Amino acid sequence: MKLYKLLCFSFLIATLTSCTFTENVYINDNGTGKFSVDMDGSPIMEMAGDQIAGQMGDNKKDIDTTFTFKEVFQEKKDSIAKLSPETQKELKKLESYVVSTKISSEKKEFLMNMSTDFKNVNELQDILQTLGTLQKLEGGKNPMGSGFGDNGSKLSYTFDGKKFTRKAVVDQQKKAAKAQDAEGDMSKMMFASSSYIVKYHFPKKIKKVSNPSALFSDDRKSITIQYSFTDYMENPDKLDCDVEFEK
């Protein structure tokens, strides 16, 4: 199965059923770190694993593979060359991501992980929104479902050793337009039972967190914030937080 076809197939599974999205951010003292997003769509494998296996082609019932977005874009280089400079710039943000996919009809398992290293938290963006740019590779046909990841916000991160901030600035005009969009209603129905979890791991103990939903780890160096995926789409600023550290 070609990489782009596999990627689209994997996202299609994610959009068809309740899926758990888990975002992990690991930050070092110097501000470098690792970012990853895990998607677990195993529930659909429980319901229709054999049928899905038949759609994978190549007579494969199991897939366990790792690739990079750079490899995917190499497959689609002719299509990418026809896109606007702005869209090409958005896609380039994904090049460093490593994608690992495990699909097993026998184990009723669908797991996907996307990860990358960063030199500064300022480099981080909303990965699900950036993934939405992939629809432009097929002339506007979105392999991940209409509206996937597009919550009408601009996400930013900052870290100076004393304080960490995650802030989503919501575009109210986009939010209002999406509320009137029938396709947006369909996306809301599809993701109603999905969850979005963010986990932040720091090199220092945490003094306090602004988000009231944050749960501390035992060593107080990590926090977890969980919401429904519907909240992530409709109220992305609910996941905002300011984290201050002990001296």
From TrEMBL:
Residues 1-20 form the signal peptide. Keywords: Signal. This is Lipoprotein. The lineage of its organism: Bacteria, Pseudomonadati, Bacteroidota, Flavobacteriia, Flavobacteriales.
